[in-house]
Amino acid sequence: MEAAVLDTLDPLIGALRERGYAVVGPMVRDGVIRFAELDSAADLPVGRADEQAPGVYRLHERGELVFGFAASPDSVKRWTHPPRSTLFRMRDGVPEPAAVRAPKVALLGVRACDLAALAVQDRVFLGGRHPDEAYRERRAALFLIAVTCAVPGGTCFCASTGTGPRADSGFDLALTELTGPHRFLVEPGGERGAELLAALPSRPAGDADLETARGVGAAAEARMGRHLDLGGVRERLAEGRESPVWNEIASRCLTCANCTMVCPTCFCVTVEDGTSLDDGTAERTERWDSCFTLEFTELGGAPVRSSGAARYRQWLTHKFSTWFDQFGTCGCVGCGRCVTWCPAGIDIIEELERLR
Amino acid sequence: MSKLAVWKLASCDGCQLTLLDCEDELLSVAARVEIAYFLEASSARGKGPYDLSLVEGSITTPDDLERIGHIRRVSRHLVTIGACATAGGVQALRNLADVREFASVVYARPDYIKTLDRSTPVSAHVPVDFELRGCPIDKRQLLEVIGAFLAGRRPVVPAHSVCVECKARGNPCVLVAHGTPCLGPVTQAGCGALCPAFNRGCFGCFGPMESPNAAALNALLRAAGMDDDALQRVYRTFNVTSFGGSSDA
Amino acid sequence: MIPTPYHVRSRRPDRADTVTLTLEPVEGACPSFLPGQFTMLYAPGVGEIPISISGRARSGGYVQTVRAVGAVSRALCRARRGDVVGVRGPFGTHWELAAAHGLDVVVAAGGLGLAPLRPVIRELAAHGARFGRISVIVGARTPSTLMYPRELARWGRDFDVQVTVDHPDRAWKGPTGLITKLVGRIVFEPARTYAFVCGPEVMMRATAGELVRRGVPAGRIALSLERNMKCGIGRCGHCQLGPLFTCLDGPVLTYDKVADLLEVKQL
């Protein structure tokens, strides 16, 4: 199936719901554009745009685009690697694996950076000697509808990391929002997407549609909020472990862990063990953890990384240097979330420059 | 069966009420432990010693001092609950002023009032096995602590920031998204990020997190419109003895 | 991440705060292990910690020594014969005994670090002919915290075994002070030596440093590193040391791979 043009997204949302998917997409909630379950295309944030800067996010009314905004505070991680999940229960010495919650979810409006983050997660969770089957199940239950970023955020730098703004692969369907007249170019990324697209009332895309769509990605690339020169960053960090810059950053860093929570590739977890008060059934829960907590490196009652400087160094060095050693790729996909959602507005791009 | 006792010093009773609020889970607790002494719930005074004592309230009178010594002696494990017991509570505001002056203004016969100059946490007087923070404490955390002491394990009560729970819950940061002053980044988790979930800033009732960088946060709070007075007030509310000096104002 | 139920087959208190357990699967046989590997031992409802395997019992079970320092290790030390604990693993890298064939061997253990080295020493005792001169040096805080004293005495008949303590009691007649001092009291040909070192990190750094100064190649000094571990399979992220996952790339690593990393404070 070739690319097609849709005038509205309602048939797409309807078809997904008919196929048993909860359709989750961007909505205005709590003063931000975040992902939540959609009833119809009317829930989408038409004409709403975000302003993103280090430590600042504001919502404005601007233009008429449905997807005229950048990365939302949440990434796909919430669905593939949820904040909390039960691993097993054990009663009378017999462990029972907990059922994996892997609901069928169609994510509408996934950005190229998030698809790149998913590819990184695939390496982390599935690429090693101990693949995570729960992750595999949750990931397989997702139907991914990408959208080309038309309006990059003020903290985005996916063009520098080579992960956007246009999605090349890793999606079921990819949308590009076109104007004059308003329409969506839809490109299938595989059989599942092609099958769904064939069932929708669409018309074939013309050369002009394809050309305009290419222009959307190119324009976004030119308007990227930030630029990062990745050359030598990996080595710079590996060699810069004793740099005085870490202490200076630590004077501003809150060690609050927001950056690691919103990062789409941060995967660290801890486990919590307990017993039910009722019948003493033991239970283990896995939950998001962060290298910014002291308990993360606790050994014999004391943390290895007691200083904020050591913890910040771990986060940045892992993302841009040791991630390559461990997973053969960069841990950063340029979404800019850690810059926007750092309350202190610490800008990793500036810090990487200062470490030169 | 293990024996549980619940004690009250200078406090508002809200933390003890958290145990009664457990409702369904309270039955499970009652099935596992003998609630031997809990005047808020029953007039029965079961004899000690007790395996686990939950102590609410701060030390503000000579009588409190005597009682906490007794409580420690009759308790195998002593867990303090709430901001009063762990950090002196709201009443520790007296520590920054002259309590006799207060007494003379409030009471017709201040000479009847026997009170200490300062309100202090229980841990300032006797060894405490665990401190559960909050104003009031969180019900899930209370059940976790009781369960942990019964099972002989370390309670899962993380000392990291509220932000970790806030993001896990899916809240957007109120400081970043709305410019709402929020103490979440310097405050210990435990409440489940209750206030930010309703678009309110955290006001620090769980006390300082494990490595608070108040100086860095204060710069942001000032930028969000708080002046020195407001900063001082927000730190000097529930946890004066642990948070009081954080305003650097 | 699901533990397999194991029975506590036997429980032997070693010292005031250490207990050696023999663990056997409730069903089936123990997976094979290599000296230096560890398992994640789970005290049901209490928690899970990494514990090295100190050997295989005659019955086929794992022999594992636990020191009661936290809630989980205390619960494991309290386990009684017949109790069920959970086991995951074995995980991690192992002591490369074959790399020491034909070479003089130095085994250096500090405190509980003797537990992961016990299978190495047993192997050396069983196949002494494959190696050159063998020396075992051990450091303990006090004579009463010295691990496996009876086995040490037995091994002393086969090769040079020397023990030092930090704080001697009245009965102690042996050397006192740091284990590095013992390095000067054993005989080995540095250029043709392989060393197995395990103990607190500061002890391992000092011992490896001393061995390097005497001419032992860093690539022939194996250490067993310790970090906070929650998963044992490179997933939780806690045990990272620079580019390494201690649970996957370690715990046993040669000094040439980690010397620089161990120099950096709070890495």
Characteristics:
heterotrimer; A: 356 residues; alpha+beta; eight-stranded mixed sheet; four-stranded antiparallel sheet; C: 267 residues; alpha/beta; Elongation Factor Tu (Ef-tu), domain 3; Rossmann fold; 2 domains; seven-stranded antiparallel sheet; six-stranded mixed sheet; 6 helices; 21% helix; 32% strand; Oxidoreductase (chain C); PyrK_electron_transfer (chain C); metal-binding (chain C); 2 iron, 2 sulfur cluster binding (chain C)
Tell me the Rg of chain A in angstroms.
Answer: 21 Å
> Which architecture name of the largest domain in chain B does CATH use?
3-Layer(aba) Sandwich
What is the oligomeric state here?
heterotrimer
Major β-sheet strand ordering of chain A: 3-2-8-9-10-11-1-12
CATH third-level topology of the largest domain in chain B = Rossmann fold
Q: What is the overall pLDDT average of chain A? A: 96
Major β-sheet of chain A, in short?
8 strands, mixed
Number of helices, counting only DSSP H or I runs of 4 residues or more of chain A: 13
Kindly name the structural category of chain B.
Answer: alpha/beta
Largest interface: A-B, 44 and 44 residues
Q: Can I get a quick summary?
A:
The complex is a heterotrimer of chains A (356), B (249) and C (267). Chain A has 356 residues and is α+β, with helices and mostly antiparallel strands.
Description:
- The complex is a heterotrimer of chains A (356), B (249) and C (267).
- Chain A has 13 helices and 16 strands.
- With 356 residues, chain A is an alpha+beta fold.
- In chain A, the strands form four sheets. In chain A, strands 3-2-8-9-10-11-1-12 form an eight-stranded mixed sheet.
- In chain A, helix 8 (233-239) crosses helix 11 (308-327) and helix 9 packs across helix 11.
- Chain B is an alpha/beta fold and 249 residues long.
- The longest helix of chain B has 13 residues, at 139-151.
- The termini of chain B are far apart.
- Chain C has 267 residues and is of the alpha/beta class.
- Chain C has two domains: 4-91, Translation factors (Elongation Factor Tu (Ef-tu), domain 3); 97-263, 3-Layer(aba) Sandwich (Rossmann fold), CATH 3.40.50.80.
- Chain C contains six helices and 15 strands.
- Chain C has helices spanning 71-78, 114-126, 149-158, 180-183, 201-213, 255-263, and strands at 4-15, 18-25, 38-43, 47-52, 55-56, 62-67, 84-91, 104-110, 134-140, 160-165, 193-198, 221-224, 240-241, 244-245, 252-254.
